Amino acid sequence: MPDGKEHLLTERPRPWRWSQPPAETQATAAETSLGRSIFRVWSFGEFMQLRSPLMFTSAAQAAIAAWDPLTDMLALQCIPPGMPNAMYSPYPIEFIDEGDQIRLRIEEWGAIRLIDMVVSEIPADAPGTPHGYSIGRWEDDSLIVETGRIDFPYMDDAGTPMSEQVRMRERFSLSEDGNRLDYENVITDPQTLTEPAIWNAAWVWVPSKQIMSFECDAQ
Predict the structure, then answer these.
(1) Which residues contact 70 (CB under 8 A, 6 or more apart)?
(2) What does residue 60 show for φ and ψ, rounded to 5 degrees?
(3) Beta partners for 50?
């Protein structure tokens, strides 16, 4: 910055270039009492990365070729993304335990996902929504989330189409020290993909980090 201060825009671990890093933020008593838990605010750690290139059907290839980012990208109109793109942002997220469901807050676009922890199958009569209907279960200390009934036209910001047959299986896994949350999302869509797409990312715990408000201006 002009005043000589250095600011990092994310929590990704990397060396400071021009100055000494600030003293580590101390955890509050309430945060310390959480112990090793997924239920807290998580800061961006690693960008979403594809494990292997997307393999498209011929119909999907044609749709991508016809997509114009200058007119078709919904973010330019301040239209929030649906799943899975709602998860693919360098902003904090927060898990809140509400008993029969888990509330997942996403800072970008002020998005909210609700994860049903009671039912074992996605209800056939669940209405289609941009975030779909999610059901969750625990495998040891990993949260497994299955999502279907997604009603949104794009899988990403590159015009990859998505059909109503898309299904997603997410895994959120805590590290041994509880300070890192690894993520995997396996996406299947027979109308768009010839084989499953697998995305990986990670979040890290930074004491006292909070979800902030998010605003979009299309002007």
Answers:
(1) 76
(2) -65, -40
(3) 199
Report how many helices (DSSP H) and strands (DSSP E) the chain contains, helices first.
3, 9
**Domain regions of the chain by residue span:** 35-204
Whole-model pTM?
A: 0.86
Residue 19's pLDDT is 62
Q: Enter the DSSP assignment of 77.
A: G
| Domain 35-204: CATH architecture, name and number where available | Beta Barrel (2.40)
| Amino acid in position 80 | P
Q: Residue 40 carries which side chain, given as an amino acid letter?
A: R
Q: What are the residues whose beta carbons fall under 8 Å from the beta carbon of 166, sequence distance 6 or more?
A: 148, 150, 155, 187, 188, 189, 192
Find the mean pLDDT for residues 28-34.
57
Among 139, 88, 144, 86, CA closest to 113: 86
Beta bridge partners of 53: none
CB 140 within 8 A of CB 36: no
CB 104 within 8 A of CB 131: no
**Half-sphere exposure in the Cβ direction for 36 (13 Å, CA):** 10
What are the structure tokens assigned to 113, written together?
């996902």
pLDDT in tens, 79-129: 999 999 999 988 999 999 999 999 999 999 999 999 999 999 999 999 999
The pLDDT of residue 4 is 78
